[in-house]
Design a protein that fits this description.
Layout lengths: L7 E3 L1 H5 L5 H14 L3 E3 L12 H11 L6 E5 L1 E5 L2 E4 L3 H15 L5 E4 L8 H14 L5 E4 L3 H8 L6 E5 L8 H9 L2 E5 L10 H4 L1 H10 L3 H12 L3 E5 L4 H8 L8 H13 L7
Parallel strand pairs: 1-2, 1-10, 2-3, 3-6, 6-7, 7-8, 8-9, 9-10
Antiparallel strand pairs: 4-5
């Protein structure tokens, strides 16, 4: 779907975090777009009870700063109450969500994902619906989110899929799904690349990269992202930054030189935690 490696900005936290405001979301998204973010990631579920389209509308506003910027969105999962979301992967829901997304985003969808592949009643029906939407041109590419290997394989038995978006936190999650997608020629988008808010500090999980960051006057997050982009072909990290400084630092990783020392530092840190990237 994307023609080069790079960083994707996820909009979820900008909409769903406690105290989130549209003003801050617009500021952070604008900073990301101006810094060269490769794509924006949103969903039907990134909504408020009084505004079902806020997440996609914010993404569309961001794209207005750079026409042609790809936007990833997701269907089949929706906000049902203040702290509750429901999943519905029926063909009817998938089509309705896709049509609403296209309306909000102002054009056919760049990439449409089944948001909670792990929670739908009939995965085969959902994937068939995605394939039909792609065939009709409502979505250029389709795929799954939150899909373990067995669900990826079940989906492939129905129709080709273009992408998978799963959590891939460094030093926290297995790389098995990434490798499975890589072998199958499926693009892999990894959200929460730093492990999410409950994970141990990143520097404690990649200590060799952290030491290099100190030596080079850079942030451990920036060097880690740069190294990830270098050692993981077919992988795009989806960051969840909510501040301008952090989003600019993360996107700066796209232009950060990656030498053998940095590459080996990341590979060594991951191997020490039982996560050999090359396996």
């Amino acid at each position: 779907m994307l023609d080069r490696p790079g960083v994707v900005l996820g909009i979820a936290a900008l909409v769903l975090n406690e105290g989130a405001t549209d003003e801050n979301a617009r500021t952070v998204i604008a900073a990301a777009v101006d810094a060269g973010v490769l794509a924006l990631d949103t969903a039907r579920a990134y909504a408020r009870l009084d505004d079902d389209g806020v997440g996609e509308r914010l993404a569309a506003e961001g794209r207005a700063r750079r026409p042609g910027l790809p936007i990833i969105t997701k269907a089949g999962h929706y906000r049902a109450a203040a702290n509750a979301w429901n999943s519905d992967g029926s063909a009817e829901r998938m089509r309705a969500d896709a049509e609403r997304s296209a309306e909000l985003l102002g054009r056919p969808l760049d990439l449409l994902l089944l948001h909670r592949a792990d929670r739908v009643d009939d995965l085969e029906e959902s994937v068939a619906a995605l394939a039909a939407l792609r065939e009709e041109g409502l979505a250029r590419a389709v795929g799954l989110s939150n899909a373990p290997i067995d669900l990826i394989d079940r989906a492939l038995a129905v129709a080709p899929i273009d992408a998978v978006q799963n959590r891939l936190g460094l030093g926290v999650d297995s790389f098995a799904e990434y490798h499975h997608c890589r072998d199958a020629g499926i693009d892999f988008f990894g959200y929460a690349p730093f492990g999410g808010p409950r994970a141990a500090p990143l520097a404690t999980r990649v200590p060799h990269v952290a030491a290099l960051a100190t030596e080079r006057g850079s942030s451990v997050h920036r060097l880690t992202l740069a190294a990830m982009l270098a050692v993981l072909p077919g992988y795009w990290p989806v960051i969840g930054s909510t501040r301008v400084a952090s989003v600019q630092d993360a996107i700066g990783a796209m232009g950060e030189p990656v030498d053998d020392e940095l590459r080996e530092a990341l590979l060594g840190d991951l191997a020490s935690r039982g996560v050999p990237v090359g396996a």
